[in-house]
Design a protein that fits this description.
It is built from eight helices and 19 strands. With 407 residues, it is of the alpha+beta class. The chain has two domains: 295 residues, Lipoprotein localisation LolA/LolB/LppX (outer membrane lipoprotein receptor (LolB), chain A, Clam), CATH 2.50.20; 86 residues, TATA-Binding Protein, CATH 3.30.310. Strands 1-8-9-10-11-12-2-3-4-5-6-7-13 form a 13-stranded mixed sheet. A six-stranded antiparallel sheet has the order 14-15-19-18-17-16. It starts with 5 loop residues before the first strand and ends with a helix.
């Protein structure tokens, strides 16, 4: 069993592999559920069985092994379980999808990603370098597939027999780098990269034994905040001992109980997938919608809808500021329109949205004034009555203290 070697991520220990915690993009005020769904890109899950004997390795060496992994070919099956403690999104989730303005786009990726914000899902994945990836979400008697092959990205919903088509990013540029759209569920390696990027000198990183995942021997990397006040208790990453590819992760909340997100391979193969995995032709009779058509339709409605972007930058938000550091960082932004929530019963908010807010919200007061905290197990947001928003993966008390400090 590997020793419990520790490497505090102070910059010197990890070099460029682990950077300061990235700021996060959040949707407000009542799309806290969308934020929680996006945090799937941050997290991982615990290996379940087996304690193989492996050579000793330090945390630093294991992090470097992940960073050095050049495995670009794989296929397998993933299981993802998410328990963020949010009510069912119901019709509210669909209002954020591209077809909310009347366009028919059930096969668009944005329409499907919100489903991963709760419950347990089985996914099949395949990859062959940066230009070929396939991801399928398996349902009961149906399947949603997202295929990236060179210049093209296809989404297909077998239940509705609808197809979404877009040009991959950079496809129009000669020699451009092809990429699938941001917000598309990532491989375990990409998820682990995000988790490691969140580490800084406020973080403890250790090797915490070994495990067996999908029939492969793995080391377990344990990432924990040193600070109190975060909703994140720990992140555990099972790393394939041979390839350095993260196989499974778990995000545990500081409040305990079931893991907030558990995502990992149940079957994995690192050989080259068959080329047919990345070929797609719209089935006969399927309705095909081009991404440009959706953008045009959204523009006519006066409300362009965007896919959830990578948890990378809040710079787009007006008046953004960050209070605190590390795991206790809280983003302060101006609420859209510069006002707080409509008064209950005012008629300014749909009844369903008001019901959703009431299920999540707690009234709070402090030096900042008064407001409402909307809670999930992972991400909390405070909307003050004077139109400020404070968001972070922190507890309610930490959120209120941040708002008080900003006054």
């Amino acid at each position: 069993m590997a020793p419990n070697d520790s490497a505090e991520t102070n910059g010197e220990a990890t070099g460029t592999v682990v950077g300061r915690r990235k700021k996060a993009r959040y949707i407000v005020p009542f799309a806290v559920a969308g934020v929680a769904a996006a945090t799937i890109g941050l997290v991982p899950a615990l290996a379940a069985s087996g304690d193989p004997e492996l050579p000793d390795i330090t945390a630093q060496e294991l992090i470097e092994k992940i960073a050095a992994s050049d495995q670009e070919q794989l296929s397998g099956t993933l299981k993802i379980s998410t328990d963020l403690g949010i009510p069912s999104l119901g019709g509210i989730a669909s209002s954020f999808a591209p077809d909310a303005g009347g366009g028919d786009a059930s096969a668009a990726p944005e329409s499907k990603l919100m489903e991963l914000a709760s419950g347990t899902h089985t996914l099949r994945v395949a990859a062959d370098g940066p230009d070929k990836q396939r991801l399928s979400i398996l349902g009961e008697g149906s399947e949603y597939s997202l295929v990236h092959n060179g210049d093209d990205v296809w989404g297909y919903d077998s239940e509705s027999n609808e197809v979404y088509h877009a040009k991959a990013e950079g496809a129009e540029r000669p020699g451009g780098k092809h990429k699938a759209p941001e917000g598309v569920p990532a491989t375990p390696k990409e998820l682990a990269d995000k988790a490691l990027a969140a580490a800084g000198d406020t973080t403890s990183v250790t090797v915490d034994g070994t495990a067996q995942v999908a029939g492969r021997d793995a080391y377990q990397l344990l990432i924990k905040p040193k600070q109190s006040g975060s909703t994140i208790g720990s992140i555990r990453v099972a790393v394939d001992s041979a390839t350095g590819v993260p196989l499974k992760f778990t995000l545990a909340t500081s409040s305990g109980g079931k893991a907030a997100v558990d995502a990992g391979f149940t079957k994995v193969d690192f050989s080259k997938p068959d080329a047919s995995s990345f070929s797609f032709t719209p089935p006969k009779g399927a309705k095909v919608t081009e991404a440009d058509e959706l953008k045009a339709a959204a523009g006519k409605d006066g409300a362009a809808r965007k896919a959830p972007k990578d948890l990378g930058a809040l710079e787009d938000f007006k008046g953004l500021d960050v209070i605190g550091e590390g795991w206790n960082a809280v983003a302060e932004i101006d609420a859209p329109g510069g006002a707080g929530l409509p008064a209950q019963g005012s008629g300014d908010m749909p009844a369903q949205a008001q019901q959703f807010l009431d299920a999540l919200g707690d009234k709070v007061t402090g030096d900042f004034g008064s407001g409402t905290v909307f809670k999930t197990r992972l991400v909390n947001a405070l909307l003050t009555d004077d139109g400020k928003v404070y968001v972070g993966a922190v507890t309610q008390d930490t959120l209120v203290k941040a708002a008080d400090a900003a006054e």
